[in-house]
Design a protein that fits this description.
This protein is an alpha/beta fold and 335 residues long. It has helices at residues 27-40, 53-65, 83-93, 112-128, 145-157, 174-185, 203-212, 234-243, 252-266, and strands at 8-11, 44-48, 71-77, 96-100, 133-137, 163-167, 192-196, 217-220, 283-284, 309-310, 323-324, 330-331. The protein has 9 helices and 12 strands. The protein has an 8-stranded parallel beta barrel, surrounded by 7 helices. It has a two-stranded parallel ribbon with strand order 9-10.
Length: 335
């Protein structure tokens, strides 16, 4: 078990969640979601997307006026023509923001020198406004580690107060993430955050690997909402960290309700087999499991207000017979 190190969770449901196909949030829905995150004990909500900075900042301004206490943050590309104006506005409204510089040589700006120049310019602008800001590197796992190190060190010298490493296409594994976080952690003396995508189903494992390598914070979304296969799910990350002895400040008993509410707001249902909050997560077919449930369950269901129950061991009609399906094949009766 870990010695109770605290990990900051930056929830991006209000930013990455809107990249989920067919998901849209009205201003009223955004407000309800922000309130739910706050009530669950999430410490930071990322609300501003780099593609819509000024419009999202208006939502953040309204939230502040309404008395929302959760820290609000956002993202700004360091290479856009509006960068200066966006930094100035974000400095007035957000509690914190991160300047993005794509680290891959396949994404503009393509030349290393130009990446360094534009990032330094944006960092100087943010520092001049006295902002609480960090720097994030999309595609950093596809970048030259030497270049990334120079970019990170330069940003920190300019005043960046955290570095975020993005597994943008979800292609890394826990060993790669652990090694990469260790590399950057040894080069800079500011908090390191990790942002994982779930394209290969490893966002939670990669997030845990990042923490075990020394990362201080993680990006998450409720129910894993996000681009393509989504992001590291808040509920899974919180559970994994709790069981390893880390602190997040998120109230475990609120998680199942939070996930259900976000599912209702987004229209994206929770899969019955979803870890931690899925309907079947603590259902058992064998009665023998209940003699010592801890041998068959990763966590005590009461922690997350999940229901343990014994499912039927036979098909509902009791026959166990194989029956024809609509395609002319055969299948067992559904239970």
């Amino acid at each position: 078990m870990n010695t109770q190190r605290r990990i900051v969770l930056k929830d991006a449901t209000l930013r990455e969640g809107l990249d989920t196909p067919k998901v849209f949030f009205s201003p009223a829905q955004k407000w309800r979601i922000a309130r739910e995150l706050e009530a669950a004990g999430v410490s930071e909500a990322e609300i501003v997307a780099p593609s819509r900075v000024l419009s999202d900042l208006e939502d953040a301004r309204v939230f502040k006026e309404k008395g929302l206490s959760i820290r609000l943050s956002g993202l700004i590309y360091s290479k856009t023509g509006d960068c200066d104006r966006e930094i100035e506005a974000a400095s007035r409204i957000l509690d914190r923001f991160d300047l993005l510089m794509p680290a891959s040589p396949k994404r503009a700006p393509f030349e290393a020198e130009e990446k360094l120049r534009l990032l330094k310019q944006a960092v100087n602008q943010a520092a001049a406004h006295g902002a609480d800001f960090g720097v994030g590197f999309p595609h950093c796992f596809h970048a030259n580690p030497a270049l990334l190190t120079v970019l990170a060190e330069d940003a920190v010298r300019g005043g960046a107060q955290r570095i975020t490493l993005y597994d943008t296409n979800g292609s890394r594994d826990p060993f790669e993430v652990h090694n990469f976080v260790t590399l950057i952690k040894n080069k800079v003396r500011v908090p390191i955050f990790f942002h994982g995508h779930n394209d290969l189903g490893m966002a939670t494992a990669n997030s845990l690997a990042a923490v075990q390598a020394g990362a201080d914070g993680l990006d998450v979304t409720v129910n894993g909402l996000g681009d393509r296969a989504g992001n590291a799910p808040l509920e899974q990350v919180v559970a994994a960290l709790y069981l390893k002895g880390y602190l997040t400040g998120v109230r475990l008993e609120e998680i199942k309700g939070l996930c259900a509410k976000i599912a209702a707001e987004s229209g994206v249902d929770i899969a019955k087999l979803a870890p931690v909050v899925g309907e079947y997560v603590c259902w058992h077919r064998s009665p023998s499991h209940l003699r010592n449930p801890s041998l068959f369950e990763a966590f005590d269901p009461e922690l997350f207000h999940v229901t343990r129950q014994l499912t039927e061991s036979e098909p509902q009609n009791g026959s166990g017979a194989v029956v024809p399906n609509d395609s002319g094949g055969t299948e067992r009766p559904k239970v």
